[in-house]
Amino acid sequence: MIKISILGSTGSIGTSALDVVSHLKNFKIIGLSANKNITLLRKQIKENKPKIVAVGRDGLKNISLIKEADVVLIAVVGSVGLTSLVNAIKLKKRIALANKESLVVAGVLIEKLLKKYSVKIIPVDSEHSAIFQCIDGRNPKELSKVILTASGGPFRNYSYKKLSAVTVKDVLKHPTWKMGRKITVDSATLINKGFEVIEAHHLFGVPYSKIEVVIHPQSIIHSGVEFVDGSIIAQMGRTDMRLPIQYALTYPERKISTVKRLDLVKVGKLEFFKINPRNFPCFELALSAAKISGTMPAVLNAANEIAVGKFLENKIDFLKIPKLIERAMKKHCSVKNPLLEDILQVDSETRKIVEEMI
Ligand SMILES: NC(=O)c1ccc[n+]([C@@H]2O[C@H](COP(=O)([O-])OP(=O)(O)OC[C@H]3O[C@@H](n4cnc5c(N)ncnc54)[C@H](OP(=O)(O)O)[C@@H]3O)[C@@H](O)[C@H]2O)c1
Questions:
Q1: How far is CA 174 from the centre of its chain?
Q2: I need a surface site. Which of 264, 270, 280, 347 has the fewest CB within 10 A?
Q3: Cross-strand pairs, 72
Q4: Residue 310: count of CB within 10 angstroms of its CB
Q5: What gap in Å lies between CA 278 and CA 256, rounded to an integer?
Q6: Parallel, antiparallel, or unpaired for β 52-55 and 27-34?
Q7: Who's near 345: CB < 8 A, 6+ residues apart?
Q8: Does the Cβ of 13 fall within 6 Å of ligand 1?
Q9: In CATH, what class is 2-119?
Q10: What are the b/e assignments for 75-110, b being 16+ CB within 10 Å?
Q11: Strand 2-7 to strand 211-215: parallel, antiparallel, or no bridges (unpaired)?
Q12: Listing from the earlier edge strand, what are the strands of the sheet with 143-150?
């Protein structure tokens, strides 16, 4: 039996992961963690009988230190997942990573730790799972570029003026994926795609100049890679996160899944467009933070977490999100090669600064 801890078990990824595990015969839930949703956590405890359960930020830290787990799925939202990721690497666990924010804020540090402890991250994010599948077994020298696809979110065809009037309800209506609230807002501002560029850079060691983002409204091609001979290999599937979650858990094997099959005739057409960066300043800010590197991505992420939270509480407008991030980034002088402590400090300072701005 493979023993698995699911951090963030009450979330969108966490609940899908529990569904996946219930259909895989050789997994046993050993740990579960949540933040506030105690009702759902109670139900999950009853059904899965985990040995360890944790609640809140401190609980999350403690559960990531347990030695019994063979696999740790990190599915919490936000940079709160960073310490768990560091702990899981140091304990040499097999890591299935959904929590992209930890790679955004501390990508260079995580890369170093993965090398030091000879640990591999198996991506859960559908785009990165796709890339991971496309390059598996290939010589990295054969890769000429990574092609990240983006649905474009609900406002793909909106003018900048029209964006000023969008409501929380409009933002939470994602056209192709059903996800947690924070990532749904991130998908509408397209900062999520910027995060994914940073994630791909650190996961696959690809320079930023070799990562292309393409709008693909149908979200059928989850991403792909181009090789030096010009051949493109891409991965397709339904928009169901149970597929990349299961692959991250069973890799390198593939097991039968309960996910509905993709009917290509029903899909009919696949379209691709360029991003219009003028409408998506958050995407540009993410690329800019990535290029500055050091502690700047931590500022980008912390400012975004606070701004998105306030937007979801109806305290700021949608277009205020990029403005707050930009102001926070302008105030910050990036520190090169930061330690974990530096990143955590910048993260907490930025949160305070952005709260004050609001
Ligand atoms: N959803 C998707 O389809 C998808 C796809 C790709 C990548 N991802 C990434 O996966 C991660 C999770 O996304 P999600 O959509 O599943 O988020 P979600 O539905 O909001 O769930 C987040 C989980 O984290 C827990 N949590 C939140 N704050 C916490 C804290 N301070 N301390 C401890 N636990 C905390 C929540 O607990 P409570 O429920 O108890 O509050 C919940 O279990 C994100 O990094 C996201 O970018 C998600």
A1: 16
A2: 264
A3: 5, 95
A4: 18
A5: 43
A6: parallel
A7: none
A8: yes
A9: alpha beta
A10: bbbbbbbbbbbbbbbebebbbbbbbbbbbbbbbbbb
A11: unpaired
A12: 211-215, 143-150, 221-227, 232-236
Q: Which tokens is 70 given?
A: 């063979």
Q: Look up residue 231 and give its amino acid.
A: S
Most confident range, picked from 59-68, 141-150, 159-168: 141-150
Looking at ligand 1, which residue's alpha carbon is closest to its atom 29? 35
AA letter at 324: L
DSSP state of 26: T
Q: Which residues, including other chains, have CB under 8 Å from residue 198's CB and lie 6 or more apart?
A: 103, 104, 107, 286, 289, 290, 297
pLDDT tens readout for residues 17-47: 999 999 998 999 999 999 999 999 999 999 9
Q: Evaluate: CB of 153 within 6 angstroms of ligand 1.
A: no
- Max Cα-Cα span within the chain: 55
Q: Give the DSSP H or E segment for 143.
A: strand 143-150
Residue 12: Cβ-neighbour burial (10 angstroms; 0-12, 13-18, 19+): buried
Cβ of 14 below 6 Å from ligand 1: yes
pLDDT tens digits, one per residue of 287-305: 999 999 999 999 999 999 9
Candidates 9, 15, 18, 35: which one to mutate for ligand 1, based on the most atoms within 8 Å of Cβ? Answer: 35
Q: Which of 9, 183, 259 to mutate to test the pocket of ligand 1 (most atoms within 8 A of CB)?
A: 183
